[in-house]
Structures are given as structure tokens and as C-alpha cells.
Amino acid sequence: MMILVSYDVSTSSPGGEKRLRKVAKACRDRGQRVQFSVFEIEVEPAQWTELRQQLCDLIDPALDSLRFYHLGAKWETRVEHIGAKPSLNLKGPLIF
């Protein structure tokens, strides 16, 4: 299934820069960045449960926010891309 993850981490608070880096790394390890704080992540349900918990544990809910958009298994028909920065094949290896 495809999940769109967006986040807003308060970098002006103590530890904010570190939280931001950790959230970005957790998302980058599983998917592709499509905007500064937005990632497309294709995962199995069990993997999603684990990643969701990891992300929730990384933020400070009083200062930061996470949004998860569940696009489902047939996401290819629900996502339209126009412009620069072509999408990666998330079913293939993610090697940078």
C-alpha cells in the first residue's frame, strides 16, 4: 500500500533540529521525498505499523505534527505527477 507522509517539526524548540533529521531519515529509508517534508512510502501493512510507531515516537506531539494519507494498493491511478524531478520506481531497489 502507498502512504503519503507529511510532517512539520518545530526547529525553534530544543531538540527540534535533531527530531527533524530523525523523522526525515526514517521516511527516506523507506520511500522517496517528493517535497521538503513529504514522502511517498510503499509498505506492507505490518511494515507500516512499525514505521508509524517509529515516527510517532520521534516527534514531540505538543510541538510537531505528522499527517498520513493512505492511498491504498492501487495508488498509481490516484497519483499524478507533473513537472521536474521524476518519480522513482518504489517497487525496485532504492539505491542512491
UniProtKB/TrEMBL annotation:
Keywords (A to Z) from UniProt: Antiviral defense, Endonuclease, Hydrolase, Magnesium, Metal-binding, Nuclease
Enzyme class: hydrolase
GO biological process: defense response to virus; maintenance of CRISPR repeat elements
EC number(s) stated in the UniProt entry for this protein: 3.1.-.-
Requisite cofactors: Mg(2+)
Pfam families documented for this protein: CRISPR_Cas2 (PF09827)
Residues holding Mg(2+): D8
InterPro entries to which the protein is assigned, alphabetical: CRISPR_associated_Cas2, Virulence_VapD/CRISPR_Cas2
Gene3D superfamilies: 3.30.70.240
Gene Ontology molecular function, alphabetical: hydrolase activity; metal ion binding; RNA endonuclease activity
Keyword Nuclease: yes
HAMAP family referenced in this protein's UniProt entry, alphabetically: Cas2
Biological role stated in the UniProt entry: CRISPR (clustered regularly interspaced short palindromic repeat), is an adaptive immune system that provides protection against mobile genetic elements (viruses, transposable elements and conjugative plasmids). CRISPR clusters contain sequences complementary to antecedent mobile elements and target invading nucleic acids. CRISPR clusters are transcribed and processed into CRISPR RNA (crRNA). Functions as a ssRNA-specific endoribonuclease. Involved in the integration of spacer DNA into the CRISPR cassette.
Assembly behavior: Homodimer, forms a heterotetramer with a Cas1 homodimer.
Family: Belongs to the CRISPR-associated endoribonuclease Cas2 protein family.
Protein name: CRISPR-associated endoribonuclease Cas2
Source species: Xanthomonas citri pv. citri
